[in-house]
Specification:
This protein is an alpha/beta fold. Helix content is 37%, strand content 20%.
Amino acid sequence: MKSLKTLLDLRNISVPEDFFVKIEHYKALLEKWNKVHNLTGAKTLQQIDEFIVDAITPITFLPPLTKAMDIGTGAGFPGMILAFALPNTHFTLVEPLAKRASFLQFVKADLGLQNVEVKALRAEQLPSEPYDLVTSRAVTDTQMLLKLSEPFCIKGTLLLFYKGEKVYDEIDESLDYQIIEAENRHYLLIKR
């Protein structure tokens, strides 16, 4: 089994110095909470590491960002992980499920994360506000994600949807998009 650092090195992903300290703390909290609250399908440390690599791979192709939103953050993938890797970007993590939102809030407080805000709501309940980036992983199909993210987009906003192979069936050719393929993942990047 390869270490998380090795997995990141293999993909040429560079992260801030304190990333691994935060990740180890996060993984310990996730393992503890997951036993009681079933927050994520990733049950082993190897699966969690794979989810982490999947979550932060886009930092290799994203431009600098000031403000980002993650719709349906779940246990933190990708929003919380991206917040660890991009400390100068403010992340709004949107998670309607109370047990997951409580976990995210606990991680934020425990690690003293200044660049994270947790919203225990559905995206549709939030006021309209522009973001540089809106992300989502395993929430719904692309058309519904486009609709959900609309109130948070202005010209130039990037939408990053973590998709599987079916992304090609979901894409509207009129969009300004690109699909970045990685191992077991298709990252759909749409420019508004």
